[in-house]
Amino acid sequence: MSQDKKPHVLVTGGAGYVGSHSAVALQNAGYTPVLVDNLQNSNMQAVRGIQKLCSQEVPFHTIDVRDATRLHALFQDFIEAGNPIRGILHFAAQKSVGESVNHPAMYASNNVGGLGTLLHVAREFEIRHIVFSSSCTVYGEPVHVPVDEGTPFQEAESPYGWTKQASERVLRDHAAAQNQERIALLRYFNPIGAHPSAIIGELPRGVPNNLVPFLTQAVAGVRDRLTVFGGDYPTPDGTCIRDYLHVMDLAEAHVAALQWCFAQKTASSVVRPFNLGTGKGASVLEVIKAFEHVTGEAVPYVMGERRSGDVVSIWANASRAREELGWTTKRSLETSLADAWKWQQTLKRE
Ligand code: UFG
User: Fold this and answer.
1) Ligand 1 in contact with 228 (CB < 6 A)?
2) What is the phi/psi pair of residue 188, to 5°?
3) pLDDT value at residue 308
4) For residue range 85-95, what is the model confidence (pLDDT) as tens digits?
5) Does 95 contact ligand 1 (Cβ within 6 A)?
6) For residue 143, what pLDDT is reported?
7) CA 148 from centroid of its chain's CA atoms
8) Which ligand 1 atom minimizes the distance to the CA of 96?
9) Ligand 1 pocket, 283 CB below 6 A?
10) If DSSP codes are grouped into helix, strand and coil, which group holds residue 9?
11) Does pTM surpass 0.85?
12) What is the pLDDT of residues 143-163, one digit of tens each?
C-alpha cells in the first residue's frame, strides 16, 4: 500500500502500452497511479520501467477487472489507509482487430464485461471521475474526414470496434442513471513511439499487427520485410492515411482529461467524447519516408494486397481536446518514429 498523500488514481491495464506511459504522465503531474493488470497481454517489465521512471514504488496489483471481489477489496484498502482512489483511467482491454474476429465472445467479456464490473464496483465506492480508452474505430469507415466527435458512428467493422461502441454506450447509461458522474471518452487515433528514455514502450506479443512495430522489427532484422497493405487506394500515393500521435502526447491527454473530470461541477452527470490525434494524416509511404529520413535506416518493404477491414483515410479534428482540455500534440511524426526506433533497439539488445 502506498503511504504518500498524493491523490490516488486507479490505472487499469497499467502494464500495457498506453497505460504504462499514462501512469508515468500521471506521476509527473502529481498523482500516484495505482496499477492493476491481469498481465494477459503485458508483463512486469513495464511495471519495473514505470517504477524506474517514477523513482518510487508505484502500487501494482495483478487483478483482472472482471474480478469484483478483488477490486472491491482494493478500493476498501485505500479508504482504510486514509487516501481513497479518486479517479480511474480505464485501459484494460484487448485491442487486436483480427483476434476479435476469431474470438468475439472473449472480446465482449474482457472489454465490455470488464468495464461493467469496474463500473459496478466504482458506483459502490462513489468514484465518479472516469477516463475511458476509446478509439477512432467507433467511427467505422467515416462519412467525412477529418472526423469530429459529432461524426456519426457507422456499423462497427469488427467485434473489437463493437466493444468500443458498446462500452461508450455503457458509460453513457451508467452516467444517466446517476448524478455527478464525470466521464471522458478518449477516442485515440494511432498511437506510436515510446517514452524517450526507451525504458518503456510497446511490447507486442508475436507478429505485430500494427504498422510501426512491424516496420521497426523489419528494419532491425526481426522480420524479413514490411508489406504495405495496398497501393491502389484513392489517396495521393495510393496507400492508406492515418493520424499517428506520440504515445507520450496521448499519455498527457489522459492527465488533462482527468483534470477536466475533476473540474466539472454540475449536479447532473457529464459524458464527453474527445478525439485525440494530431489533426494531420500521413500515408503508409509517408511514414516509411519519415522513418528513413529521421533514422538514416532503409526500410525493407514491398507493396502487397489490401488488408481486409482497413479504412481508407481517417484523421482527427482534435479541436475539442485543444479548446476544452487545453491539450494538443507536441511531438512530431519524426520524433515519434525516432523514439519507436530507439525502443526497438533496446529490445534487440535484450
Ligand atoms: N499497415 C501496413 N502493413 C503492416 C501493418 C499495417 O501497410 O504490416 C498499414 C495498414 O494497412 C494501415 C496502416 O498501416 O493502413 C495502419 O495500420 P495499423 O494496423 O497500425 O493501425 P490501424 O489504423 O489499422 O488500427 C488502429 C488501431 C486499432 C483500431 C483501428 C481503427 O490499432 O486498434 O486503428 O481504425 F481498431
Assistant:
1) yes
2) -75, 145
3) 87
4) 999 999 999 99
5) yes
6) 87
7) 18
8) 33
9) no
10) strand
11) yes
12) 899 999 999 999 998 999 999
Beta strand residue intervals within 147-261, DSSP E: 182-188, 190-192, 226-229, 241-242, 244-246
233 is catalytic: no
Cβ of 229 less than 6 Å from ligand 1: yes
| Ligand 1 probe mutation, 190, 214, 278, most atoms within 8 A of CB | 190
Neighbouring C-beta atoms of residue 1, cutoff 10 Å:
10
Q: What is the crossing angle of helices 247-263 and 17-28, to 10°?
A: 60
Task: Return the DSSP state at 154.
Answer: P
Atom index in ligand 1 nearest the CA of residue 311 equals 35
State yes or no: cis peptide before 146, omega within 30 of 0: yes
Collect the ranges in the chain with pLDDT lower than 70: 1-4, 348-350
What pLDDT, on a 0 to 100 scale, did the predictor assign at position 157?
Answer: 86
Cell of 35: 496499477
Report how far ligand 1's centroid is from the alpha carbon of 185 (Å).
Answer: 21
Q: How many Å apart are CA 183 and CA 185, to the nearest integer?
A: 7
Q: What is the pLDDT of residue 309?
A: 83
**Residue from 284, 288, 291, 302 whose mutation best tests the ligand 1 pocket (most atoms within 8 A of CB):** 284
- The answer, yes or no, to whether any atom of ligand 1 lies below 6 A from the CB of 235, is no
Using CA atoms, how far residue 324 sits from 164, 253, 266, 348, in Å, is 23, 11, 16, 41
Determine the Cα–Cα distance for residues 274 and 134; give it in Å rounded to an integer. 9
For CA atoms 167, 95, 136, 311, give the dihedral sign. Answer: negative
Name the burial class of residue 79, with classes exposed (0-12), middle (13-18) and buried (19+) by CB atoms within 10 angstroms of its CB: exposed
pLDDT at residue 315, rounded to an integer: 98
Q: For residue 155, which phi and psi values (nearest 5 degrees)? A: -50, 130
DSSP secondary structure letter of residue 126: T
Q: Locate the ligand 1 atom nearest the alpha carbon of residue 229 and give its number.
A: 7
Q: Phi/psi at 245 (nearest 5 deg)?
A: -125, 150
Residues 7 and 32 sit within 8 Å (Cβ to Cβ): yes
Q: Is 20 exposed, middle or buried (0-12, 13-18, 19+ CB in 10 A)?
A: buried
Does the CB atom of residue 313 touch ligand 1 within 6 A? no
CA–CA separation, 70 vs 75, rounded Å?
Answer: 9
* Phi and psi angles of residue 157, each rounded to the nearest 5 degrees, phi first: -85, -10
